[in-house]
Amino acid sequence: MKLGLIGLGRIGAFHAETLAALDTVDELVVTDAVPAVTERVADRVGATPAGSPADVLAAGVDGVLVAAPTALHAELTLAGVDAGVPVFCEKPLAPTPAEAERVAAAVTAAGVPVQVGFPRRFDPAFRAARAAVEKGELGKLRTVRSTTLDPAPPPASYLAGSGGIFHDCAVHDFDAVRWVTGREVVEVYATGSLGGGDPDAFAAAGDVDTAATMLTFDDGTLGLVSNTRFNGRGYDVRLEVHGVADSVAAGLDDGLPLRNTHPGATFPAGPPHTFFMDRLATAFRAELAAFVDVVAGRAAVPCTVDDAVAVAWIAEAATRSLHTGRPVRIAEIREPATVGD
């Protein structure tokens, strides 16, 4: 199989190494906006360098991965779709939910497979939690809690174009709780604060460095999502699902970046996870292997454009709630013409 990869920044270069190690990938064609980066990554992983995204698509690839900056996701995804090539697009599908809706409609009309990158769906513990819910082992769900705590913030230049903590960071939690519970979010209430590092960088982007979001699902289940850009002990990704019959948790391995104050406790043994590529390495490999199966026609898309649109609206509702100080219903912003009818 011959795959293309567009964008060789932090996550793109990581994907290049993962793809090059897959037995099912015979050739990898890569490109980046910076030619020196293209050459450097191609040399390191044994890939074929290309001068532009158009050159990648013209190289006869069977599938293409889009890991370019967010502003280019929609354009590059649709270029792949127009070429009839299955696409893996890193989140988000587009910079805004409305644009993501338009991209999703075009993808659906074209009938070309597009997978969106939400790696927690491929984490073994998260998958086991979802299986427990699907089997009814927890009984009726009451609460779900999801956490993403980053050890340090991204650069100010990244923050300016990230869309804010809900679109950039919490969106992974929003996808995880929606996927694990199998329910839709109908209302969002969010709050946030500044106080870590250089708050001016966040304020300039209209963002916060720490946030909490309460989600109400269509069956009455409540979700709690917590996020921060400043978690000194490491990179913390966890999920808890509580039902009337049982409760489960994902992310409680020995790398959990928490110091247990219970007398005599030895868990977690450490060392703590310090980066998402460490914590989710297994998930990333499984995610890309799943895309290879999609390209080969062996599997359906595991994370669709419709999934990406749904969580984009949750993130948008959280952003609006943060700035207005009130709960925001998804229908209120996604279908404004129906409100009050």
From TrEMBL:
Domain Gfo/Idh/MocA-like oxidoreductase N-terminal per the UniProt entry, residue ranges: 2-118
A Gene Ontology molecular function term of the record: oxidoreductase activity
Residues annotated as domain GFO/IDH/MocA-like oxidoreductase: 126-244
InterPro entries given in the database record: Gfo/Idh/MocA-like_OxRdtase_N (IPR000683), GFO_IDH_MocA-like_dom (IPR055170), NAD(P)-bd_dom_sf (IPR036291)
UniProt keyword terms in alphabetical order: Oxidoreductase
Presence of keyword Acetylation: no
UniProt xrefs under PANTHER family: BINDING ROSSMANN FOLD OXIDOREDUCTASE, PUTATIVE (AFU_ORTHOLOGUE AFUA_2G10240)-RELATED (PTHR42840:SF3), NAD(P)-BINDING ROSSMANN-FOLD SUPERFAMILY PROTEIN-RELATED (PTHR42840)
Family indicated by similarity: Belongs to the Gfo/Idh/MocA family.
Name of this chain's protein: Myo-inositol 2-dehydrogenase / D-chiro-inositol 1-dehydrogenase
